[in-house]
Protein 1
Amino acid sequence: MRRYSAFAIARQAFRHHEGWERAWRSPEPKARYDVVIVGAGGHGLATAYYLGKNHGIRNVAVIEKGWLGGGNTGRNTTIIRSNYLQDPSAAIYEKARSLYETLSQDLNYNVMFSPRGVMMLAQTEHEIRGYQRTAHANALQGVATEFISPRRVKELCPIINLDGPRYPVLGALWQPRGGTARHDAVAWGYARACSDIGMDIIQQTEVTGVQREGGQVVGIDTTRGPIACGKLGIVVAGHSGVMAERAGFRLPIESVALQALVSEPIKPVMDVVVMANTVHGYMSQSDKGEMVIGGGADGYNNYTQRGSFHHVEETVRALIETFPIISRLKMLRWWGGIVDMTGDRSPIISKTPVEGVFVNCGWGTGGFKAIPGSGWAMAELMAKGHSPLADAFSLDRFREGRFIDESVAAGVAH
Amino acid sequence: MLTFRCPYCGIDACETELAPGGEAHLKRFGPGSADADFEAYLFLRHNAKGVHFERWRHAMGCGKWFLAARCTATLEVFGTYPAQTPEPPQDIVAAIRAKRPDWSLS
Amino acid sequence: MSLRLPKGGRLIDRDKRVVFSFNGKRLTGFAGDTLASALMGSGQRIMGRSFKYHRPRGVVASGVEEPNALVNLGKGKTHEPNQRATTTEIFQGLQATSQNHWPSLSWDIGEVNALIPRFLPAGFYYKTFIHPRPFWKHVFEPFIRQSAGLGKAPDPKLQDPDRYEQFYAHTDLVIAGGGIAGLQAALEAGRSGAQVILCEQSAHWGGRAPVDGVEIEGQPAEVWIKNAVDTLEKMENIHLRLRCMVAGVYDHGYVLAYERVSDHAPQDDVVRHRLWRIRSRHVIAATGALERPLSFAGNDKPGVMLASAVRDHVVNYGSAPGERVVIVTNNDDAYRTALVLAEAGLTVPCVVDARARAEGALPKAVRARGIRVLAGMGISNIKGLRGVVAAQLCRQDGAGEVIEDVICDAVAMSGGWSPVVHLWSHCGGKLLWEKENSFFRPDPDKPPTDQNGEGFVICAGAANGALHAGQTLEDALNSTRKSLQDLNMPVSDQAFLKVSVPEEEKLEPVWIMPAKAGPKKRAKMWLDFQNDVKVSDVQLAAREGYESVEHTKRYTTLGMATDQGKLSNINGLAVLAGALGAEIPQVGTTTFRPPYAPISMGAIAGEARGALFQPLRRTPIQGWHEDNGAHFEPVGYWRRPYCFPRKGESHRDAVNREILAVRNGVGLLDASTLGKIIVKGPDAGRFLDMLYTNVMSSLKPGKCRYGLMCSENGFLMDDGVVARLDEETFLVHTTTGGADRIHAHMEDWLQCEWWDWKVYTANVTEAFAQIAVVGPKARALLNKIGADIDLSKEALPFMGWAEGRIGGFDARVFRISFSGELSFEIAVPASQGRAFWDKLLEAGAEFGATPYGTEALHVMRAEKGFIMIGDETDGTVIPQDLGLDWAISKKKDDYLGKRAQERSHMADPERWKLVGLETLDGSVLPDGSYALDEGVNENGQGNTQGRVTSTYFSPTLGRGIAMGLVRHGPDRMGEVIAFNTTKPAAKGAAPKTIKARIVSPVFYDPEGEKQNV
């Protein structure tokens, strides 16, 4: 692989950029792989990458029904943070966040990780207590966060309105090393790195069945014929239920639409990511200048990538209260993704009832920020059968009543 | 922005007057049931891409819960019926079959 | 130089001059002008700067598809960035400034980029700025951010002064587009009796037809349009909206339309934008077509415009981009522009036609006027730095060898037309590639479908691919009839209208001009003007394996600008297909999502802002709280008094004062927000036994019982006191936040699981005002105002209730206590709540009756060791964790949550359990602090053995008190454990810890002597 650098660009400039090679190969599938990963989104590609990098497993194919990175990896609001409450969540998200810090260098692909800081506003007494709890938990989890005053909030984000008539800002949980990254670049960078170490990324190929012998996976059927494999990783987010059914088991997952939107681009006014959970909205400004906005998920099962208008309406209302300047901006683009929600809203990285089949799903509304950590943990689990980062996220927690509930901070108010 | 006809009050209700309630026809498992049954009852879902039986409440209307058969891939609604129905009624099944000949009630 | 023609301009009124300013320069236009036409008429050619290279740009189009002419509009409070000059109607005093340049529009330092674009190809960000690591965040990114962005941000110190509103409508048909197709559709639908909303995004009916010289029934299109509008205005079932764009089509026939009510005439007391939320049975998209640019070197220079836009500006506004205009085309339609220009007295040096032959009626007419027509030719390059000086001609099938320089000051280009299929696509309608015409059109077999699985959007006229005026009206009538038939409505038997327009010969697809252009030229052919994406960029993306159109779009940013690819999508797709050696439909099209063009956030939010942001629930006593300086906290949609600070008093001081007043005298709490649900029927007791963990059916009328409710998943979800009113009737009290949720929960189980049980429920929360009269002097106060109920301990003991009159009010009084004091919670009809409150206050003066807020309530309950839902519980806590086993019936076979609580993790003896915590130094433990344990876990995280759930300063005890969950806590009474803080003891040192002793959670009056008096 030719390395990317400013010098490479300069060299190519004099050849009219006609000498660039493919970022990733487009190979024909082989008859057998040691490991097949279904789903070439960020999580699937990261799993493959760390299988190779950390565990020396390189006879790997990543099979993708559509185009790599074309699902939720390319449809989210690109927020990266690890200020989670529960230990298992903080561990995997912080692992991911720390990997993001050096991901551009690791992959030789600029994913534009920008640790601009993430703040979660406290707008009720109850939220203050919740975020103070998170700050105390984070202190023990090695996650650098602090609870900051409204004055500090205003310093960090001058366009914020502290004194909304209904929900004045009472403080915030601040993670200075949280931020954003360029979502597509994460998928593309991993894909390029996987391809470079000899893995096959096979796009436009749907997995139609899972072949089992004696409760053990032996291969898959695809629209381009059967492929044998030793282990199978299912990493298909919203379509996990469909794939699980093909492998013969069910998951505690429901697929719903999550919507996001951007404004027209304006000159920089906001250098941090702000989340306002009481009113259900969050916003950051992209490097292009667009205000990137997200809110809550729809409440019904949906595979259409189209959501309902009233959710967007509520999000925009909430954000106009928090950031009055957006009232005179215009919504440019609006899209939906299908997110996979589990029974406790935390992900699943687990073995399954079928020997050799592993599943990584259930990231719900928060998957992008986890990609490197999720891939790291899934690769370790698939290679070794055990991963400290993944263990708590096993499927059996639903049977045991051992939930990982992150909605705690926004729990029930009296 | 979905609409459903409330089988109680007959109104074509917009999603904004309705509260979603997840998969329908779940059988409750209480004390004494097996761990696997209880887990399945609470968490394991068909999550079908296609015909889906689900619960809705006409929360901002008559307040009644009702059930609906809807396609999660196209959002087509095959019919709605009262919540006090242990399994999909014949006319609903027929309406689905008419539109989705390959579909079977699993 | 662009200019205003001495005459012409069907949409302007030359008698009405309008003064406006651009970059501080005072300019004059005419009423009816757009900002673009007025600027063009004033000789202002450069209107903006491109996004990436900051290249100077002029207007290229004439509608919402405009990618270049975006301005900052207004000043101060009314400032709005990224307004399209082409859709901005000018008004007296309009102020506009250009965007994305520094220091000035004509001299922009960012333009240095343009000298080195070869170093900034598509995706260059991904390949560079990688080392050294901190430079991305601190050096490269700030620079990129500053040079990106477009318009100036509004001033955060100013509030948007304008109003926005939303209208709701239900209708049979929404017709999007008021061109001749939309009008034809509306006429036919109107005759059928259908309810119709006809929306036109511009300020004028009729669309392109009058500009294109169309004749209908032997008369100029304008005459027919006027008659059609007159007819429609008289039809009661037709609703006409101008300046109203159908922005999006959503599932099940939901349509959003965006009406710019007063943008063209800003004034006070008129809403600015109106968002229409329409439920329509069908949508007819008569949205027309958009012209495509041609990709030749220098096609982005100011003065190069779409041929149709040149025509629009000349015919509609009498403005022209230049005096000598070269036309370059691959179709006959652009010849109309040549005719219009010639008619206006301008010079057309030549028409450059990429096709081998140009022998249709329009080319013939152009030749007949003595204009040169050069077939088989193309443009090799545009000369000029800040505008057009000459077009260099070449053979289309060559590599661009220049044959001739044609001196000109503007170029009108046409690459053919693409139907506007956005509304068809919003809900998943599929498209067909029509090779013959080189465009995507709706696939009639794959429409977007509604709740019945039936197609509900139909395209009409040019939007359906019927580009020529004759076909347009015929198609519009056919499409409308099809729609009406689907809706079971009558159709007319009216004949198709006679339309006379010249025949047109076929276009020849031209995606690169000239066909064999080398890399240097391809790097100067713009596809996406605003985002500076060129032919070479798309080819680079394809070369590097970004083969999907989605990849290419994202890698190059093609089509991601504020015009959302209206001009660039098809051209980019064709170039990509060419680079991949694939057919265009194989490469696919991108998904169109709402909105069709950007709509204001203000309109999306509508009236719901400020005080109206969310509904506000008020108790009958709210007014008193507001008048008496309450500090409020939001609890759901309520605002409850947190405390009532007196002058000069801090919130903390106020809370302490309120607590001591209650403990030593009497306090008054507005408890009206507490949920009150009536549960009634022969099976009510049985039902409550399933809902609560303890037994409620054995409760006697006249008595109260505290109970816990769990979710089916076993977690504690609510608590409260149940009073049995009579044999069949219970009154269930819930938490403030729980009332609606618990009522819905009850209905869920009653309707969906136990539907044969005879129980009714009613949420009567707002029917009563409820006031807690609390403290040792509570009884004295009530006796003073007089009651026909015996309030003595013997007659009305703790956990009893009675009904009667107190102080002349109809009341129910409950002997329940959340503070540990003697307490009477008294419910009176909501309408009398305020009067009752006033009476208690007045009569209570001699006892020092003190209103208190939620914080005093919280502290007092913590002093008593009572749990609070939301503090001691967080959705992961079960009653067993809280030492509430006494409230969990062992006798019952079943209750909601019982099975769940049998699961291994819930029965685990290692679960943390509720205890009281006392710091050794009397200080207050921090909120949310964790109890430290030895070592770290497998992921290197510090181990913990518990956490603080509630922590307060207790003024009663004069020290900090806390409750928490601790592993084996109840077995470890007296043990001292350490809690973490987030504050470092010194810079660089580990955060300090606080030691606390495990004690009983009941800090105050453990025997309950005070409440039981």
Protein 2
Amino acid sequence: MNIAVCIKRVPDSETRVKISADGGGGGTRLDEAGVKFVLNPYDEFAVEEALQRREKAGSGEVAIFCLGPAAAQETIRTALAMGADRGVLLQSDAIPADAFVTAQSLATELKAGVWDLILFGKMAIDDYNQQVGPMVAELLGLPCVTAVAHLEIEGAKGVAEREIEGGIEVVEFPLPAVLTADKGLNEPRYPALKGIMAAKKKPLEVKPVQFSTGGGIEIVALTPPPQRKEGKIVGEGAGAVPELVRLLREEAKVL
Amino acid sequence: MTSVLAVVEQRDGTLRKISHEVVTAAHRLGGTVEALVCAAGPVKGADQLGKFGADKVVTLTNAAFAKYAPEGMAQAIAERAKGGDGGYTAVVFAGSATGKDLAPRVAAKLGVALAGDVTDVGLEGGAVVATRPVYAGKALLKVKVTGKPALLSVRPNVFTPVERPKAGTAETVAVNVAAPRVIVREIKAAEAGALDVAEAQIVISGGRGLKEPANFKVLEDLARAFGSQAAVGASRAVVDAGWRAHADQVGQTGKTVSPTLYIAVGISGAIQHLAGMRTSKVIVAINKDKDAPIFKVADYGVVGDLFEVVPRLTEEIRKLHG
């Protein structure tokens, strides 16, 4: 089973977001100084799923694709240390603001291979776009199921479960397919020391990426969220509850 | 004159409430609003969309649309979006589980950009601008969406429905779509009355302070006291410990929520959790540690033992609703 996994390098979820003041006073991007970058947590589920599927099939390749800056080689190495076979970095200092542009670059690259599955994380925890996977599927003309939290594959047929409001959607699809992974799909392994050593010797191809268009999203400004008004401690213990309820009714007007 | 397509949702032939929010958001872009729903037949509640500002309500029907049909619906909506007198300025989707799956497919079919999960939208100098939380709400990104049409999906619970009665003319169009490859076989319903944390008006979340999984019962009791509008959420710590379902996790690697009332119980307030709930309208924190970071974002805090405070709160809420 040949599986492609598309990953992204993102700031760790514990990052305190500081905005870079890039001229003109206003900011348009994250100040990366001191920020720790990691493999996007949802992509870990995708990598893990690929490794388990390949192990089960007994043969095939797990290839990692990443669009990002030179430093994303480290992110790819993390996936290789988990057990993937090779990596491809589509190198660009800037990630397009328009996910469709990213999807076009990845689709062009993926077209060169033959894949049973193309896996993504459900979304990146930085831009929260949640778009690239289904867009790549459209561009490649492949069936797609997003936010998969449970997966069964028998031969060329798959059954996925995805969470919707108030329930679980059970979805059938044929392979080859594009899937995006949600939390709950599996428990990603930690790279073992042996894997980390082996990853250093695995092939990692770096290609400069050309974007086909400027895209349809122009960034106007990146700003901190509005500060919440200073709150108050209503009191201590159960005795404070009647006053809390009164404030929620009369002051906040939410009850 | 702008013309905006509002893609609304039905389940089991009944319009979903988030549809009112989609039409309300579409209205921010001015001009005429055409609400579009894919269904197998007539949609109960679709006639109410005029009340929220839909000039026209179009039902695209196909037998395959009884359940969510990602491929067929994306095709039908994309084809509709290409039409319109002089084209549509924008197509607005719900930022629901369905909308998040559907909108990128339509965007790719049209070859245009999509601004997802937006919390503000408007026209500036004729251009569609939208604001969307990034880094789980630790920052807000304002963007200009230059596609023709501009595609948007709107975060649930943000665009409070506004009544502005319009004609709401109805039109039904039977559509043909390609044979599907991806098929929704069934929907396993969550336990009766269970609401999704992303859509609930009231979210009561528990953290490690609950001490053990069984103790979430005190939060479930409180949720029930609020009637049918509250859901129980959880912090990453307790989800990772296997106490609660992944679907319930609030935070940067879970769901970002904007309910009217968020009650954080026994949650210290790690930065990744705060990111997921800071856009709630009113935040209440109940924690025994008066120095917990959660109190810094809470509007109202109660310091104390949650096992005493929460049952008392449940009692008071029952009195209000009883």
Protein 3
Amino acid sequence: MYQVFKPKNSQAMKNLLLVILLSPLFLHAQEAKENNDKESGKLQLGVRSTLSSFNHDGTNGYGVGGQFRLKFGSRLNTEWFADYITTDISGLARRIDNHIGWAVQFYPLNNEIAKGKFTPFIAAGHCFDYTNITKNTSDGLSLRRWSSAVHSGLGTHYNITDKFDVSLSALYMMHLGKNIDAQPFEDAQGNEQVLIQVSDLGLEGHLLISLSLNVYIADLW
Amino acid sequence: MKKIFFSLLLFPLTMNAQKDSSAQFIHGHMFRSQATISPGYVMEGKYLNIYLHGTLEYYLDNSISLRGDGFYFLKSNSPGLKWKQYHSILAGASYHIKTKNRFDPYIALQPGVGITQLEYGYPSATISSSTDVPLGKVSATPLISGVVGFNYYFQKVFHLLAEARYVNGKHLSDISYPISLSEVKFSFGLGWNIK
């Protein structure tokens, strides 16, 4: 014969039910790892195409370059880049700019890096610029100079996959101190000439538009 | 009973299943490479260049791959100018359109650099006759290119490839007026891949 368990009275059943209902209050779970920690240390590598427009002499320059990005938090990224830009000055001279610099990118809106998402950012930074302007003549007279510049602007990443993104940015770059520039003019005989000189451009600058392809390669920490 | 039990144990050895041929062939961590002769039509000058074209590609997954391309200049039938060198190296990525078979269509974007040098070019405003001056200097010319193409993996290690590429750039020279490098290049041939 089997014996069936029977509580002595209904009060015992009520007590048991109360203990079961209150038991979640005694449960603990560890805190979720902060999103900041997960994003920090991510390293990306990429290539870029650059357009330099609204230059002082009215010409547009086209360039190529590369960059790597190192993230310091879910809303803070740094980009370290190098560009090589060539500009035709009315067929009379050619300008070559080599930029090497960095920028901080802050994500004020969406900062979740995921497939199909746009991640807009505000960027600001600094770069060094080695400029070489050469006349298109057989003697090839040229002027070269190192200068420094600051830049800031806006951009966005678009993640095609979780590990790969296409980024577009527009940065306004202002050169500090003196720089060299080329000015085409017509001489007294009506021939096209170009004057290459060191000049103080003041607050004038130019717009740098970059389209880059970036891939996530490592988590450094 | 023992015979039935033994038969059941050996039964799986007689079973076969075919590989799912409807699955997409490309996948992550796959390498692809190719080498072919590639003609290019220069739009401004309306002439043909011939290159040796090589590609190295690594698939991150079945939608994105990283690729590098090199073009080695062989010859040209340009009427008004003569290239001494026009080689280029490009690096970028491809986006692969999802399929359920061995057909792999893609689009790609690649910035790059052209190594360009003229033997003689178009007279510029400051040079009256470009044939009177020595060989032009070697220039590094920024390029950008967009590609449309497909691969067909008909074998485990070989595939058929076909692509059309548009390249844009401008050669700035000391012996010539600036020369547009806008060009459409075609590549077709056999490539090989490692899973």
